[in-house]
Amino acid sequence: MPAPTPGVRVRRVYEPPAADDGVRVLVDRLWPRGLAKTDARVDEWPKALTPSTELRRWYHGPDGAYEEFCRRYENELAEPAAAAALDRLRALAAEGPVTLLTAAKDPSESHTSVLLRALNASRA
């Protein structure tokens, strides 16, 4: 997983909210199964930052490969709506802690690692 962006961390959405989470941002396209919205305490859900339905289905299908998924997702993050949502995420992180929430069982092998790299790249 890339070096963390200061003020930004990744947690599974199923973990109980912590006092130091700051702004809680769900970065999955689909709402997590079995989780009530009140329990999740999500502050923002920018779907433009999430992998497209097509990309997600491809990745979880028989031909999906992580490195190719990362490349394709990076291309999606460069699109105008995603770039604007990424700028919003950077602004939130500049103001205080941000917690990216995902239902992925292994966030280090998910889109969140690509998202963290994109946040770091913009700061370089």
> What's the average pLDDT?
90
| Class by alpha and beta content | alpha/beta
Poorly predicted spans = none
Taken together, the total number of domains comes to 1
In DSSP terms (H or I, runs of 4 or more residues), the helix count works out at 5
Protein name: DUF488 domain-containing protein
Organism: Streptomyces lateritius
Describe the structure.
Pfam families: DUF488-N3i (PF22752). This is DUF488 domain-containing protein. The protein has one domain (8-123). The chain is built from 5 helices and 3 strands; from the N terminus they run E-E-H-H-H-H-E-H. It has helices at 37-40, 53-59, 66-77, 80-95, 111-123, and strands spanning 8-12, 23-26, 98-102. The two termini are 17 Å apart.
